[in-house]
Amino acid sequence: MKLKYILLLIFIFIFCFMPTAKTADRREGIENFPQSYQPYLQELKKRYPNWKFTALYTNLNWKNVIDNENEFGKNLVPKSYSTAWKNTKTGEYNIEVDAGWVDCSRKAIEYTIDPRNFLNEVRIFQFEGLSHDSNTMNQTAIEKILYGTEFYHRTVQYVNSSGRTITMTKKYSDLILTAGKTANVSSYHLASRIKQEVGPFLSHSSISGTVKGYEGLYNFYNIGATSSSEPMGAIKNGLQYAKDGKGATQATKTKYFIPWNTKEKAITGGAIFIGSSYISVGQDTIYLQKFHVSSQSNSTLFWHQYMTNVLAPYSESRSIYQGYSNSGILTGTMSFVIPVYNNMPKTPVQNPNILESSFNVDNTKVYANVSGGLNIRTGPSTSYEILTTVKAKEEMTRIAKGKQTGELWDRVRLSNGIIGYAYQGYLKQSAVQEEIKVEFDTSLTVKNNQVSGLNVNQLTVMQVKSKIKTNGTIKIYNFSGIELTNTQNVGTGSIIRIVDKNDVIKKEYKIIIYGDVNGDGKINSTDLLVLQRHILQIETLKGAFYTAGNVQKNGKNPSSLDSLFIQRHILGLQLIGQS
After folding, report:
1. Model confidence over 315-335: pLDDT tens digits?
2. Separation between Cα atoms, residue 479 and residue 330, nearest integer Å
């Protein structure tokens, strides 16, 4: 009895104090991200107020992640890429792991794994949540995603193992929509992935049904198409999976509809594979399928990776974005799950194409010397995506001055923390002068460069200016950018600018009047109409107007309950609080 008691104590001690696997933690809301993420997400939220962002705290150390991904053959780039992208170790440099593909550099891994590099409206889609949503997904949108390919509005035909051509009554979009519903995988993701994996042509070897030895077999997602130095090795490996699951059990083959000897079985069975093998176990974004840094089962990480191309999430995100943009669904609800690591670099890791030798370290205040707006991009050329657009005379800090051959581009940090690149010819150095300071009355709330808390009966420019102390000059504009006189009223979206003696913008804020969703400073029936159009998805509120429509101040999409609060305000039953 005593021995059993001792063993029990030992078991309890081991159970309580032994090291346990760290689990990922998901937290929705921009405020739950590290500061280095937030300005990029806030910029996206301004343009797309219905987008939702969830921080995935992996609880993994940055260096440990890179070390585990930086194993020979795990991440590849095309052999044609520059040396900066490739592993240059002796005996490993330019060795083809797959035909035309070589091991990538550590810098390339750091760049592609750092989520902060891809928080723009194009590349963000590598973080899109990939479960099916029957309320928003439809065949018309799938067709728009397929536009420009031979799948577009095409009736399905395939060759069986006997060489006979079979013509179905269904289109590819039918099969993709049904596959998404069956597998609980985003049908839009499936359409985009097919475009990514097999390209725009039905003649691709993975889906032609004519590869010798694999006649009548199809693999739309290149599942099991592992790297091989043999000619067409990866494709044959994928078709072998389509044939017999590469030794899978009968239960597994039944689950995935293997053999994939019809296009319908290949599209649906492959979708079930993606759903059950990745999405349902926590790898529910393209990024997480490429970089195995999260698992719901606490299993060993870094091995269950869908593809070897280190830039696959980067490439697929553009394809998805273009498909969504063409289909007109970008303004709808989109959900993104974005990883966060411990001890990340202070600033985003640079693209290997961007050489530090092309810049001189700088710390100069400059401003946009343009008449309109100046685009801030993710890299030093117009081929890179736009992060944001700054206004004429808006000030920023040049942190690296370009000395490239040809066009000169500078690396800049905006006042909100965004780091990007601007054409040097459009930047002008600010005059040296005292620091501009701004202090708002304690009755006001200032958050993320938005000002609320104004008394709706005291909205003249003069009254607003009286609540601001600064050694600069205050200028106030309406939401259209027209400067207001001291006797005119401000409204939602009105802009407060603090400028220096050279008229360079030092600080900028937007005014929020809760309930005023049309920007005239009043809360009346017009606002009810505008809000109703938003609720019915006829015309979406954005930016400051979206915030003003959320009268409940709970951070949610403005709804009929907010409309009710506006009605009660108009009737004098309950005034809307502004603080």
Report:
1. 999 988 988 888 788 988 889
2. 23
- Whole-Å CA distances, 92 to 96, 97, 104: 9, 10, 10
Instruction: Inform me whether the pLDDT recorded for 153 exceeds 80.
Output: yes
How many residues are present in the chain?
579
Separation between Cα atoms, residue 215 and residue 239, nearest integer Å: 9
- Two structure tokens written together for 423: 């054409």
pLDDT at residue 93 tops 50: yes
pLDDT tens digits along 401-447: 999 988 999 999 999 999 999 999 999 999 877 788 999 999 999 98
> Considering only the top CATH level, what class is 356-429?
mainly beta
Q: Are 376 and 412 in contact (CB under 8 A)?
A: yes
Displacement of CA 72 from its chain's centroid (Å): 28
Q: What is the pLDDT of residues 159-168, one digit of tens each?
A: 998 999 999 9
Phi and psi at residue 484, to the nearest 5°: -100, 150
CA–CA dist 122, 322 (Å, integer) = 8
Type of residue at 435: E
Closest CA to 507 of 498, 515, 516: 498
How far apart, in whole angstroms, are the C-alpha atoms of residue 64 and residue 342? 10
What lies within 8 Å, CB to CB, of 442 at 6+ separation is: none
Crossing angle between the packed helical segments 139-146 and 172-183, to the nearest 10 degrees: 120
Residue 3, pLDDT score:
36
Concatenating the DSSP letter of every residue in 297-340 gives T----S---S--BTTHHHHHHHHHHHHHHHHT-TTS-EEEEEEE
Tell me the helix, strand and coil percentages in the chain, rounded to 5: 35, 20, 45
DSSP 396: E
Helix axes 263-277, 172-183, angle to 10 degrees: 30
Q: What angle do CA 510, 35, 85 make, to 5 degrees?
A: 115
Quote the CA–CA distance of 336 and 122 in Å, as a whole number: 13
pLDDT in tens, 502-538: 888 999 999 999 999 999 999 999 999 999 999 987 8
**β-pairing, 155-159 with 165-171?**
antiparallel
Domain limits, the chain = 26-129+289-328+332-339, 141-280, 356-429, 437-579
pLDDT at 8: 36
- Establish whether the linkage from the previous residue to 558 is cis, with ω within 30° of 0: no
The CATH class given to the 437-579 domain equals mainly alpha
pTM of the model: 0.74
**pLDDT computed for residue 299 by the predictor:** 66
SS3 137: coil
